[in-house]
Amino acid sequence: MSGVCRILGMGPGDPELLTLKAVRLLAEADVVAWFAACGRPGHARVIADGHIPRNAHELRFDYPFTTGVSVEDPRYLAEMGAFYDSCARDLAKELAEGRQVALLCEGDPFLYGSAMYLFDRLSPAYRCEIVPGISGMSGCWSAAHLPMVHGDDVLSVLPATLDEESLAHWLGRGDAHVIMKLGRNFEKVRAALHRSGRDEKAVYVERGTQSGQICLPLDQAPEKAPYFSMVLVPGRKRAR
């Protein structure tokens, strides 16, 4: 019999925010796999550290690049596609041997998670189970003590990789906004927030729920932002 690929959401960073189900299934795994930037510890692996079985075989998948190549560059889709194909083949070998595979993913696997690309490749042939995780944005607005939406507020989730014009357009619609994937896009995000008039209530959160957490009004935020940071714009326009 073939094995099972369990894609486990690791939550926003605090190891205590793992779900009981993720911990239980991780303890049953024969193989534990995760993604990482070259030369850095995988963030999902760090979160899961205390729960990985000693005898589990571990597979580390190093991205060919992270921010070094723009998503508009033709190389991006080609090389990332080849990378995910290779990762899926490695997991398929384990699954064909009947092993229980745990694929770790920061936050929630189906919210901008790399694990979804392996799900796309593996699920037609192998049994896959998804364990949702607390999303990074949920962790950040909780860390910032920032109620985001109520009543009939509309929430949008925007990738900072959009161009400034598109960001400003979406920020001008809806009530509350989460802007993810800041990194080198932070200056552009600031400009789009100012242009749309949404900068006054915006809050910057860096490494929410993790050690070194920072929560500040946007106008007090540092000039540069790491990948694990986001901007939150609360809604709640109506009294209650």
Automatic annotation (TrEMBL):
Residues 7-214 form the Tetrapyrrole methylase domain. Pathway: Cofactor biosynthesis; adenosylcobalamin biosynthesis. Pfam families: TP_methylase (PF00590). The keyword Transcription does not apply. Keywords: Cobalamin biosynthesis, Methyltransferase, S-adenosyl-L-methionine, Transferase. InterPro entries: 4pyrrol_Mease, 4pyrrol_Methylase_sf, 4pyrrole_Mease_sub1, 4pyrrole_Mease_sub2, CobI/CbiL, CobI/CbiL/CobIJ_dom, Uropor_MeTrfase_CS. Belongs to the precorrin methyltransferase family. NCBIfam families: cobI_cbiL, PRK05990.1. This is Precorrin-2 C(20)-methyltransferase. It comes from Asaia siamensis.
